[in-house]
Amino acid sequence: MRHAACSASIALALAVVAFAGAPITRANENRGTGPAANPLAAAKKVIIDTDPGTDDALAILLALNSPELDVRALTVVPGNVTAQQGLENALKLASLTNRCDIPVAGGAQHPLFQKLITAELWHGANGLANVELPASKCKADPRFGPDLIIQMIHDSPHEITLVPVGPLTNIALALLKDPSIVPLVKEVVIMGGSISGGNVNAAAEANIYNDPEAAEIVFHAGWRLTMVGLDVGDKTLYDQAHLDQLSKTHGPENDFAVKVLTFLIGQEAKYGAGGGSPMYDPLAVGTAIDPTIVSKQAMHVDVESRGEFTRGETVANRRNAVERNVLHGDRYVIEGLDHVEPNVQVCTGVNADKFLQLLNSRLAGK
Ligand code: BDR
Ligand code: CA
Description:
This protein is an alpha/beta fold. The chain has one domain: Ribonucleoside hydrolase-like (Inosine-uridine Nucleoside N-ribohydrolase, Chain A), CATH 3.90.245. The protein contains 13 helices and 13 strands. It has helices at 8-19, 54-64, 83-96, 120-123, 145-155, 169-177, 206-209, 212-219, 230-233, 240-247, 252-271, 280-289, 352-363, and strands at residues 44-50, 69-76, 104-106, 160-164, 185-191, 225-228, 237-238, 277-278, 294-303, 314-317, 321-328, 331-339, 344-350. Strands 3-2-1-4-5-6-13-9-10 form a nine-stranded mixed beta sheet, sandwiched between helices. A two-stranded antiparallel sheet has the order 7-8. Strand 11 (321-328) and strand 12 (331-339) form a beta hairpin. The longest helix has 20 residues, at 252-271. The chain is globular. The structure holds beta-D-ribofuranose and calcium ion. Residues 51, 53, 56, 80, 165-166, 281 line the site of calcium ion.
């Protein structure tokens, strides 16, 4: 069942049934004494939901080295790699950054209604550019990722920004299990979607394509949602000059990032247009760090789940209006326009230079 065509309501109902048994565990917050455990009051509390993943790894390093953010948890979703490999990678990244105080929790094992599609072609056999990091000193948090998300939102109402940079399965599961989180979330900043074509195929971006029903649930939850899509990510090309700059400094994270970025630039030269590698997931984190890096436009966005060529496409209504067709005899007549409410702040522009310098500056010497 690679591309099951389900309506959102069926998807929602089935998902509720399928996952109703998942436990919610309420445990003490696992805050430690790492660098961000001493957050400035102003630091933004974020939960990164990730399928690590090369660019996910860079996004996590960026977040953990940015004082503007207080990373409260990493939750892992299958996507670029399997759930198991993703959890192992997330734990290795927490260990690399000496942040075992941050809960790292596994979550869903597969998308809501289709088979998992993994992307070792783009991310390397281990998802981390084939770079072998040392075994992790950190242990997985026993809580189910969506439950951890729910718990943390209730523990810090109106303070948590969710930054999902993989398929939206875990976020949808959290919403289905506890819709009361919607008004309690400060903001959701996703990497995913596109308003001008896809990377999986002509229409769909990978994170949405890999779980369109989950995306539909997340896009229509009614919370403040910023979409950092493929088309703006494509403007943030990390090139050889950026790599040369970062290669001048050293440290475990810096050196790991250089290896990952070397791999990514190579992949882009092999399969893409060359000229550098798009920093998709890091840009979502960059947007959480500094929202002025991007420009946005409010749009009504639906997720296509039934189109033969367009399943997983984010269909954006730039005018937030649809024509009202009224039946007159044997034909319809357009009688006016109906407003459709914007549900997404769509990123339409990015200051790529500023962002790429931010990324390098935060990784340098770490
Ligand atoms: C997205 O898909 C994944 O391969 C990347 O990690 C990113 O989140 C880009 O389409
Ligand atoms: Ca990702």
